[in-house]
Amino acid sequence: MRQFQLAGMFIAALLVFFCLTMAGCGGPEEAPEVPTDVVEEDPQPKPARKPSQQPKPQNYMLRARVGHVATGERTSSKHADHGIPYFSGSRAPVLVNDRWGYIDKEGKIVIEPQFFCAGSFSDGLACVCNGPKHGYIDTAGKLVIKYKFDDANDFCEGRACVAVGEFPNEEWGFIDTSGNFVVKPKYKSMELFFSEGLVAVKFGERYYGYLDRDGNVAIKPQFTSAESFFDGLAVVTLDGKDRFINKTGAPAFGKLATRSWGFSEGLADVAGLKAQIDFIDTSGKTVFEIHGAYSEAFYFSEGLAAARIAGSLIEKLVYMDRSGEIVILLDENCDRAGMFSEGLAPVRIDGKYGYIDKKGVMTIEPQFDFASKFVNGWALVSIGGDNYTGKIGYIDKTGEYIWKPTK
Questions:
Q1: Residue 92 contacts residue 106 (beta carbons within 8 Å)
Q2: Parallel, antiparallel, or unpaired for β 2-4 and 286-290?
Q3: Which residue from 14, 65, 71, 68 is spatially nearest to 337, judged by alpha carbons?
Q4: pLDDT of 54-68, one tens digit each?
Q5: d(CA 341, CA 264)
Q6: Which of 183, 179, 226, 230 is nearest to 201 (CA)?
Q7: Which end of the chain has fewer CB atoms within 10 angstroms, the N or the C?
Q8: Per-residue b or e along 23-41, where b marks 16 or more CB atoms closer than 10 Å to that residue's CB
Q9: Do the beta carbons of residue 12 and residue 315 sit within 8 Å?
């Protein structure tokens, strides 16, 4: 186990998510009863979903998880910047004159801009909306699942989580790729996507459990919060404490999951003793420790994780390897650092985003107001504002535009 101690005072991190988080044919006839023998204070509610923005166009979806660690800010993602449009299924969504359409790998429009919102293709389908209702199209632009949902998410593992009813009284269920309900809408809330065959669901007004892809209760409702599974483990809150569980719902090991964002590439960060951060493996064994000079750390991706170090005179962003060794020390004016994907990571310096390689070399100079990670050789960027307010385009790994920013 390797230990690192950097002089300086610990600066507490303010953790702020960029956007909001977060179906009976084939499912259980009735939702199981929630436990009544758990005594605890009323839990803090999960962030509420915003009502659909209709008919105003939107940068689909309005709950992006971007994957940047920043000075005083951390957001999360493990599903290809879930909610940020990206190139998939030979198509990528673009916004032209306030309507969404799709381009091919050559940057040519193949589905005319016509939608008020548009998701990325997954399982051969993309979620689109005509204003008040959501449906799904195929890669030819044909509407194959009719506009009938009041909210909907992209497909993942052959299932899409959808809602009917107006916010905040909507009910959630999920469908298969034919548009048939596997679980009819009846749940108060549901995670955005399936992960490792399970999805977190809120039963009734208080407790969360997990359903499998067939709608069966895989883990009974007992938690006051529940996150997605990664590396076979998930972070939940039980009896007021955050902890890891396995896919049977049993505690994974003794360590609490305090301040943890969960596992990625077999490692997870947890709050240790004396203001340190421990990185543990999936058996719960501590692999290395980071002491108080680090105020926060992020997911591992391609063997590297961003972290923020804080001292009495400096506050810098770095990347460390799986042993905890600092391998990239970023520019002192860098205030955001993203996850590595396809060998590159977005960083923000003096208010503009560019991309570095794994040696820390700036390969695409800072010039964007927003930048996502690369997926299938493309990255979404924006100018004149962030990915909600600015013009959005796509670049390749040389920094050349495949689609110049439009709005």
A1: no
A2: parallel
A3: 68
A4: 333 333 332 222 334
A5: 13
A6: 226
A7: N
A8: bbeebeeebeebeeeeeee
A9: no
Lateral strand order in the sheet of 277-280:
2-4, 286-290, 277-280, 268-271
The total of other beta-carbon atoms located within 10 Å of residue 165's CB is 13
For residue 86, the model assigns a pLDDT of 82
Length of the chain: 407
What is the DSSP-derived secondary structure letter of residue 396? -
d(CA 363, CA 354): 8
Tell me if 290 sits within 8 A of 277, measured CB to CB.
yes
pLDDT score of 38 more than 80? no
CA atoms within 13 A on the CB side of 221: 20
| Strand order across the beta sheet in which 160-164 lies | 151-152, 160-164, 171-175, 181-187
Per-residue pLDDT of 221-232, as tens digits, reads 999 999 999 999
- Asked if 231 contacts 264 with a C-beta cutoff of 8 angstroms, the reply is yes
Do 118 and 101 touch, CB atoms closer than 8 A?
A: yes
Exposure string for 353-382, b = 16+ CB within 10 A, e = fewer: bbbbebeeeeebebebbbbbbbbeebbbbb
- Give the pLDDT confidence of 156-214 residue by residue, as tens digits: 999 999 999 998 889 999 999 999 999 999 999 999 899 999 999 999 888 999 999 99
pTM of the model: 0.79
C-alpha closest to that of 227 among 27, 57, 77: 77
pLDDT at 274: 59
- Residue entry with tokens 């949902």: 149
Amino acid letter at 124? G
User: In 3-state terms, what secondary structure has residue 327?
Assistant: strand
The tokens for 364 are: 């695409």
Strands (E), 178-293: 181-187, 189-190, 198-203, 207-212, 217-223, 225-226, 234-238, 241-245, 251-256, 268-271, 277-280, 286-290
- Tokens 């040696």 identify what position? 359
